[in-house]
Amino acid sequence: MAAPGDEFTFPRTGMSLRNRTVLAAMTNKQSNPDGTLSDAEINWLLRRAEGDFGIITTAASHVTAGGQGWAGEMGVWGDHQIPGLTRLAKGIRERGALSLAQIFHGGMRAPEDLTGQQPVSASENPCTEAHCGHSRGLSSEEIQGLIKSFGDAAVRCVEAGFDGVELHGAHGYLICQFLGEGTNRREDEWGGDIESRARFLLRIIEEVKSRVPDDFLIGVRISPEYPKIGVRIEDSLTLSELLVESGIDFLHISCWDCFIPSSEYPDDPRMITEWFTEFLSSRIPIISTGAIWDSSDAQAVMDQGADLIGVARVGIAHADWAAQVSNPDYTPARPPFTAEHLAVQALSEPFIEYMRNWKGFVE
Ligand SMILES: Cc1cc2nc3c(=O)[nH]c(=O)nc-3n(C[C@H](O)[C@H](O)[C@H](O)COP(=O)(O)O)c2cc1C
With respect to CATH, is domain 8-332 assigned 3.20.20.70? Predict the structure, then answer.
């Protein structure tokens, strides 16, 4: 099995990574109201590129103004955002990491009080949880328009100098709402079995592929299970097969905890990553993320068959995590962290405030 410090090459593009570590997408609420990047947001990511991460992923960034999920979110929906994106992509490259922009649309989780528009989704979805609105179902024309918006956003990322995009199909946002049988009850070509529910995502991939250069990375992040809206592990395996056939460069599985079994099959001894690594048997590079903290966690997930390992919270607390994880004895301090410690790790005040929402993270 490979180790976290090993180099890696993406087979299709031949693009190389200095190690197997990925800073997973992290919303940090630091972007300007027009979706442009702030200096604070650029600094926090560049500091992790300096800390030796192989890949730096941006926060989820919306492809249309109406797809914004929360305040302070970065956007890729307008050309006015390109100069900031260019500064970020250039800085990441200068520090030796590869850059991915995570692009998405909030769907029913793009609140009207933020966007001024009624939320949209695969179907009409009444919803009462926070960040959720009573959505209306999209028309076929609107679906085609959104697919094009994903393509437009990817082209902006190319212009800005990013190495690739990660299509955010996880965590209950619009692409995930199409995948979930609970939120997608359409009776046209965009709904039905998993092949049909995946059509929106597959068309986005086609659109992006047709408009970006050959060496631009395209990956997809999914939630293997998201019972709340009807995303089930068997469907996710079928989806992963369709994604392999679509010719993307990587599949990112968002496990939240890589060390627990499937919630649907708790008696199956396999961890969620292993369901995919066994099923796909090395046909596509896999990133897996969730509850990796020290070097033995990192190695364990590689031993489950992941090609690359993603981290979020430990990368907030320890900017140099990637530089140290090859040391088998590396056991970075765990939460809670003081605001002073987080400031030294290049977090701005608004980001530290936001992290207070993550139970037990800030002292
Ligand atoms: C502050 C914060 C913001 C996050 N924002 C995003 C996001 O924008 N997009 C996304 O796909 N996941 C997001 N996540 C989920 C992480 O990418 C990751 O999957 C999750 O935190 C589990 O990894 P960890 O145990 O290493 O933190 C976020 C997580 C945190 C802690």
Answer: yes
